[in-house]
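Q: Start with the shorter request: fold the first protein.
A: Done. Sequence, then structure:
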Amino acid sequence: MDFNVKRFAADAGTFLTRAVQFTEEKFGQAEKTELDAHLENLLGRAECTKHWTERIMKQTEVLLQPNPNVRIEEFFYEKLEKKVPTRVNNHELLGQSMIDSGNEFGPGTAYGNALIKCGETEKQIGGAEREFIQSSAINFLTPFRNFLEGDFKTILKERKLLANKRLDLDAAKTRLKKARMADARAVAEQDLRMTQSEFDRQAEITRLLLEGISSTHAHHLRCLNDFVEAQTTYYAQCYQYMVDLQKQLGSFPSSFASNNNQSSVSGGASVLVPTLPLSSSLPAGRSSSAFNELRSCSGSRKARVLYDYDAAGSSELSLLADEVIMVSSVPGMDPDWLMGERGNQKGKVPITYLELLN
């Protein structure tokens, strides 16, 4: 019990000494030992790393889960160390609605069949999105969070110890200046040597930890590469799913006048009408042979734009639905693209947005 009381008294005395030293420094009544420039730079770099790691983490979480309420719920599950319940995402919900409606209208009808195909594609995109989110959480967010909750907390702890050791050192310097008697000066000098040694040792520990930030940056760079790779895979999957769907829908007849199972005739009688075949070929202007023929010759042809397209760069040409442009093939160009011209404007255009005209 006496030991605990003595320890408490010693801790209280140390705290009071540091508080007095800190207050006098703030009022300019005591000198302050400055850290060397290299250590100060390392401390600033660590704070900068912490700040931007938090910002990137927050915005990535918003990207992966835009709903703030769901993010809060997932945060609580994580803190309680419970498994987050699996949720159906928006693509999967839309896909299921399309499939259900397609089955209701009839898989044998063009519209019903198209809805089912669209629904299946939306569910595929939903699955790809789920894999992207999971991969990003494991390979990108988790390492960032581990740094903030692990390495940086250790840095904060050692930096606080360094600040305390610095206060102890300056308090010892102040006591030595105030000492008048030889015995008092001898004690103050010994105290100063001890506090200087402890300060130097703590500064070295802190410096070594702060220099590890370079390793953190290297690790986060690898995580960033993993995140970009996951995004690339996700968007490539989505693009391929939609291209495949577009090809499937392109095989549907352009007229849906006879899509219904029943059609009214004169006199009010209803008769069954066979559904149109769903395996007819693409229109001539959209068939692969038409584009292959264009690539094999050095000429150009008119093409009608099927959908609006926003150019992704200066090398591409933006398009408006239903406008007519001139297109030609350039040797070495990606087979999914052609060179488009509209007046004085020129740039690459995707063939999936075009229909060649005779």
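Q: Next, the second protein, separately.
A: Sequence, then structure:
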Amino acid sequence: MVLAAFSCRTYSLARPLRLGFITNQLLSPLCPGLRIRGLSILCAQYRKSENPAYAIHRPRAMASSSSSWELPLVAVCQVTSTPDKQQNFKTCAELVREAARLGACLAFLPEAFDFIARDPAETLRLSEPLGGNLLEDYIQLARECGLWLSLGGFHERGQDWEQTQKIYNCHVLLNSKGSVVATYRKTHLCDVELPGQGPMRESNSTIAGPSLESPVSTPAGKIGLAICYDMRFPELSLALAQAGAEILTYPSAFGSVTGPAHWEVLLRARAIETQCYVVAAAQCGSHHEKRASYGHSMVVDPWGTVVARCSDGPGLCLAQINLNYLRQVRQHMPVFQHRRPDLYGNLGHPLS
């Protein structure tokens, strides 16, 4: 399958909102006259007082009986966070409202959606507890829009804040009523030193989380929560898949060195080995004079094909989640039945 990127039309909101898409067998265009062999493009057909319509093209070998109109739609939001928390919320809220207007049942925001600070001291100063004002704003936003929110990496002052003076990188999942249904605290901290990118010491301000979170049932499927650097550890994704995950999500802020080399490769690998959808909302562009992010938010299907991708800059992309297709992929290639823990132990052992 040959893949190519196309930019769909720009939406006129308070600020230009760019939608970018790249799709395979699960998504096809309703853009009149646009048909390319081996490739399907999802374009929003915008008309006043009308919702955009979407169709699905499926390969004959794995045709599904589900109508495309019944398939849940998810939105993946790409932003450029700065130290300005209020402006960051305004940008994210605009994308979430657009996702709701387009019919998404769940919107994914990237790691550090709340802010990206200039140094560890500023990170600690700007952090909040889960019961703080910022999360309350997102709770109200979820209620207002009537959709689920994956808040991909919140700088959380935990209950041990007074003792440790360190925070958690916390992935928060809200339902459409604004209730917190899951929290996952990042277990793998990014302490690396890369030529051309400079050192990163997440542990200077952050404590590693103590455990994984069991997959959570949502309108799009069962979601396994992870964050950014976690994608480099396949044991985590295997454990979530064996615990029932159908969608793995890796909200991220990849840098300019690792992004081009590893971002898409790792996401597709995680999808292929677990036969899950992988949703990766990403930070993009220059956050301040000290930091920039790679972007390229995307959705990968259980076959390992990129089915949606954001264009450059802040915006969102959309993908339909076809669990019948997922089940067919697993039926045709039952890799989890073929695993040999007698040979290599309990790598990716199911969660207790």
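Q: Describe the second briefly.
A: The chain is about 25% helix and 25% strand. Confidence is low (pLDDT under 50) at residues 1-18, 21-66.
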